[in-house]
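Two proteins were folded this term; both appear here.
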Amino acid sequence: MLLLALTGSLATGKSTVSTLLSQPPYSLPIIDADLLARRVVEPGTRGYKQILKHFSATTPDLLLPPESPSTDTPTSNNASLPHQKNKKAERGRPLNRPALGRRIFGSTPSRIRARKTLNSIIHPLVRLEIAKSILYHFLLGHWAIVLDIPLLYDSGLDIFCPVVLMIAASPEIQLSRLRARDPHLSEKEARDRVASQSAVGGKVARTEARGVGRGFVVWNDGTREELAGEVGRVMREVERGRRGVWRWVFWVGWPVAVVWGMWEVWRGWSGRREWEKGERDREREGKKGK
């Protein structure tokens, strides 16, 4: 089974591509890391408790306000409503995501540290949920799964994905789309969010460095129709090179699938190591030039 990583920065159109791949003619199962990231920090979960432990002191409005008493009145159509609300109250109030976003997004040292702390809480929990979903879809016999992971390279999950599809857009297009999608954000908040992620150019270079058939970059500065056409072109190439191989591996038996999977992980790990070594070399050369 092929793990196709779909990645991109904020407001580049990654969600649109995810929707396209989930529909005919592709009809691929989607594992959405953002959705899982929300699930693992719901009230009462281990992730939720860890976030409270680390951020309550520095973020007074970390939790949403309690529900208004007027909303707690049971209706005749739902006699179990009070019991349900009591269970919700026991788990705790939901996280105030805009407040948490203001705490972690930005380029100041304290916000960078806060962002790293939050990622160290969420990423391991999301990886576990991804592994469960992959096993489920593997047992169903799908030839490929789309892993929708915005922070693919930051999380280190790229080594498990033989193919990466990167959706990119110019910075000004990103900013305009983000503010249209989230109108409550000020221009500064929107810029902080865009700047908090790795630069699009770096992700593009890293994806292209994976080589032919392993890294694809689609620029989404145009219309949805143009984007759909580019996605179709990429998927035709992926299917030509991968679909038949994985179908053969699957039917030969799971031991062959495991060995093949380990080979792909080794290739991914080697490629990541080579890229990081190149980054260190470029950094040293840059310091010498100064």
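Next, the second protein.
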Amino acid sequence: MASAQFELSDPPRDAISAIKFAPSSPRLLVASWDKNVYLYDTAPSGGKLVQTFEHRAPVLDVCFGDSDEDAYTTGLDWDVRHLNLSTGTQTVLSSHTAGVKSLAYSPQHRILVSASWDSTLHIHHLSAPSRPIASVTLPSKPFSISLTPTKLVVAMASRTLHIYDLSSLASAASALASTNEPEADAAAVPVEVEPWQRRESSLKFMTRAIACMPNDAGYASSSIEGRVAVEWFDPSTESQARKYAFKCHRQADEQGVDVVYPVNALAFHPVHGTFASGGGDGFVALWDGVAKRRIRQYQRYASSVSAVGFSGDGKYLAVAVSPGFEDGREEVGEGVVKVFIRELSDTEAKGKGAK
């Protein structure tokens, strides 16, 4: 069965920074540089825009919380916000001192992690949201974060990578939340949490995206130089010998010379454990990271792929298309930003096994 694809109506007016499906429904959140968060219902044929939530500045990331009505947003206004999707109410949970690039929510530990260009993580303990926020200092500016049920991976500048134990972060946030200190205007309080592991990226150029395996075994990372690396958490020599990197999202020009594009987005399939990559070349590919094989590559989109995401049941793949620097455009024209929903067949994202 070939996969079916449709385009969402009423897309954002500027570049898309993030897309996230709800954990247990076809709802989709889209964050944009046009200072809005868009909520879509992708179930109807063609999908429909449910509501738009305006922010003060470009929105860089978004995620769902415990329910399909709870969301969290962040961006260039430096704030981390809770967004009630039913009422539209926005509540500031904490404020960084620079733009906030990434968000990740752990339902197992009920903590929300934000990563800011001020080189800090804020750990929000959502059982006590009015208490002081735990702040963890990073050695470099973070570019991307991803988590599993037990670990948080933070990819930073200078090819630095930290892996944190989520229970340690949750304990630090919980200890701070249990104090009798006042809210102090949502000020963040520095805490010391040592990373479980410190690593250097396997990629020689700047990390663009990182995504963790759903089985809690490892992660994939991508760079601006058309490469993806696959690594495992297990620090044993045998496990670390399995890590590898490969070239992708490179297209030959008219002279036959490879043009290298950034790999902007990564997302793991929640059921099969394979992953999707989206690049500046306008292609989306599916990969079997264990077998080291490409499963398939979809037809080229009109411009750069800025974000990809699987639905919670793995039946849908959302693809955000936004012109980027690699398209040679400084301004985004009307009608060029698009979101596509691809319905996957039962075996479309299933690994093929080793060669």
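The first strand starts at residue 4 and ends at 7. The mean pLDDT is 91. These notes refer to the second protein only.
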